[in-house]
Amino acid sequence: MVAQNIQPIYLCPLCKASLQSETTGLVCPAGHRFDKAKEGYVNLLPVQKKKSKDPGDNKEMMQARRLFLESGSYQALSDRVGELVLGLPVSPATILDLGCGEGYYTHRLQQVLAKEDIWPQLYGLDISRAALKAAAKRYPQIHFCVASSFDTPFASEFFDLVVRIYAPSKPEELKRLVKPGGHLLTVSAGPMHHFAVKQRIYDTPRLHEDSVEQIDGFEIVSSERLQWQLEMENPELILAFLEMTPYAWKFTPEARTQLAGEPFSCELDFRINLQRRVL
Hints:
S-adenosyl-L-methionine; metal ion binding; RlmA_N; alpha/beta; transferase
């Protein structure tokens, strides 16, 4: 099987009608128009639905995450996600990476499937325009759109598989997106995740709550923890790692310099849940 150049399918975020392609972007029957950026992504986050002028990760945060992820430091997580997708009973024809950021995991999943000659219609959604500008430029075979993970521009029951790595979402929207018999794969922080960073901030750091997220309308297929110790010596990589954590703002410039000035070891702990949408 060869990769197909399939036209992406979107709904208008304002009236929920189907969007059709035109010269410069997409338009719905009501005349709502959405431009396609030169990089290839479409912006389906109307001004009236934004909570800030430029929501999501900024360019600096995106570049830090890109540097860190491309070092291979989280590759074990990406590999395990790929293994779980390849182990599904039926290869998914439509996949959404919800909260895809700059597209690292989306592209890695595409590569894993391509090696098995599997070419799904693959979408990446994020609220950050800076992240998707980089993603669409690098990975033109993936359909990227700027949109809210709480109000996605897709028809109900459109996806065979939704992958959500850390992204915020609401259960009702996840259930709406996944076809009956389709799957939802989520990754969240396990109890010990980033504990060494917490020890630098809090007098009494707490473990993350470890729970198997049970979403209405889904049944648990598997739940597992993936853990390893991250060892870093490169100061630039240490600072990039810190920037992509939710704790970066708690560090003063002096504390950042101190952290990056010596080898740093940190716990990584991921909870990976695979669920199936019941019929």
